[in-house]
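Ticket 4471: requesting a sanity check on a complex prediction with nicotinamide-adenine-dinucleotide. Repro inputs:
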Amino acid sequence: MKVVFFSTQPYDKSFFDRHNERFGFTLEYYETALNEKTVNLLGHTDAVCVFVNDQVNRNVLEQLSKKNINIVALRCAGFNNVDLHAAKALNITLVRVPAYSPYAVAEHTVAMIMTLNRKIHKAYNRVREQNFSLNGLLGFDLNGKTVGIIGTGTIGQVFSQIMTGFGCRVLAYDIHPDPKLSARGVQYASLQELFAQADIISLHCPLNDSTRYLINKETIALMKNGVMLINTSRGALIDTRAVIHALKSGKIGSLGIDVYEQEEHIFFHDLSDQIVKDDTIMRLSSFPNALITSHQGFFTHEALTQIASTTLINLKQLNEGKRCGNEITSQG
Ligand code: NAD
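Returned structure tokens:
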């Protein structure tokens, strides 16, 4: 079986090559993202393997279908970049890695909270400049604070457990509340209650038509003054312009984002010798109380191991004509 990878980074190649020793597939790696232009690079292959910022829209799927490529393997959990209806109509099978170390993303979320609260990003630079002053570094105890979690699936659950361990009160909103979490002390509430009561709000729901711009001018107005907002899920869950406005006014006290709605041309690339043309990300970077990481929540040894192993097992099952439990259907 031949598989062509898009958006490949050196670490993808190293993990996939190592795991492929068990499978013996022919793996070809392209650094470029999959889109309407780069799809034309493809010659004969049985499948393509894509990541979060590859464009798997109707046009791309039609081109794949014309080339008799009927398998798209996502090496990630989210699939908001895929036109599910077009894939179904074209009989293209989509598979993904639904769960891989939820600890990776949940722990990164906590790292962002701790950094923003105790201003570690500022302290690190200060001490290196022999500035040992504490002025401006004041934080708050997490113990006793209310954390609002939107989306209590695999990652949200792990995150809720960690925050409970800190002594936080955990409020949650999910369209499918999980009774197991209620038994562990998580209180489900309406979105309005969560926005009104949470000192820290963390997003762990998928991006879809009902969650796009969930955080917007109106919902920000419902939040506590000085709230901390964390997004390690998908960029377009928040209206970045509304968030910038709220950072300027002080309504949002601090912001941590591992994802950004226009991230596809920026994240995962070294642009340090270029002029970045995206004024929004540059404005965000200028706030001392905003912390941006470049979609690295998933980036642990354990997660990359599971991603490579599950993706190759998915491909093996499809190659052998078997049903794959990780297939994405248009129902999700
Ligand atoms: P999951 O499917 O296990 O959980 C998602 C939860 O969101 C479910 O409980 C679902 O009921 C809930 N939900 C769906 N629609 C909702 C809505 N409108 N309002 C509130 N809740 C809603 O997914 P997961 O594995 O926990 O991942 C969550 C998200 O994290 C993914 O969608 C993905 O976008 C993101 N993610 C980010 C990284 C990263 O590196 N930063 C890595 C993996 C996943």
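Notes from triage: DSSP finds twelve helices and twelve strands in the chain. Leaving this open until the requester confirms.
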